[in-house]
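anyone seen this seq b4? input:
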Amino acid sequence: MPVAEATKISATPKEFFTHLSPGKLTGLRKVADASGRLKVLALDQSNSFKKFLRALHEKSGTPKEPAYEEIRDAKLEITEVLSPLSTAVLLDVNYGARQALNAGSLAPHVGLIVRLEASKDPGIASEYEPGWSVEKIKKMGGTAVKLLVYMDVEDDKATESQMNFVRQVSEECKKWDILLMTEELSYPQKGEDKNSPAYVARKPQNIYKSAELIGPYTDILKLEYPADVHKDDESTQMKNLETLNSKAIRPWVLLSAGVKFDIFAKQVELAMKAGCLGTMAGRAIFQEYFDYTNPADRTKFLKTTGIERMKKLSDIVDKHATPWHKRYNLTSQDFLNAVSPDWYAKGVSASGADVKGEY
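predicted toks r here
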């Protein structure tokens, strides 16, 4: 194991953040609110937007494949209306990131998180979006990189492949000094679906182990809800969430996974009470936008229900979430003490992952 990698894994979580590099620390502060909590609007989906728009065309009596402009414009409208209530917006390079910058849709002072990976089905090895890179996200002014990896920890070969990609991206984010937010997603094995008892039973363990494996190589974890709100009582859900919180050596945000908003709101409250940092949610907030065939009705939905949902989630996060710096009892003085007068020459507190590194 390389020395830098060994240092990264052996560093305590508090040391990791005390010595976070300037670019990563700036990015972390920009994707969070003033208190250190995250309220991220996730709009990096590709296939689900296409699916929603196909259904909308069917409903309108004009079945067809959605055009690039339709997908782009839907993302831009959602961004414009809801980004002012977010601490950051997650967008894809294909339809949203530069498009939102050029159109002025992203609210001022809101962080821009950009998806790195190509959109793939579960079980297929992750790879970079063709022609895209960490370097390009940094150069376009992105606040953070988002990486998704599908994980089945019972499949050793697939897990090692995914972790090799995670390590590669982690090194690239260190090189370009940009915050990395890594998402894990579980998936059913052959012959199963998401409702199969065997899959449901092992899913929490898959989430725990994935968090343990990915944690040392990322700055923020984006994790699934490790319980079934329909079948597990609240005590079981809290126990699972507390277990997940103990496994996560990095601050973590809860993803919505497209569940209905009322369910997600309940998940959020329990997750925040268990130590979660905030939310990174998309479809739970805006999916009904695509139920309306009239563009004016879609806009009205965003400006009423969409805004109400964002405010509700924000209230829950404000009330219960653990700010990232408080998770490790970090103070401003801790960060200040990590900077030596010649930090820029010797590289002290520059690598983020390592206690000492190059700048």
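The radius of gyration is 20 Å. The first strand starts at residue 38 and ends at 43. kinda curious what u guys think
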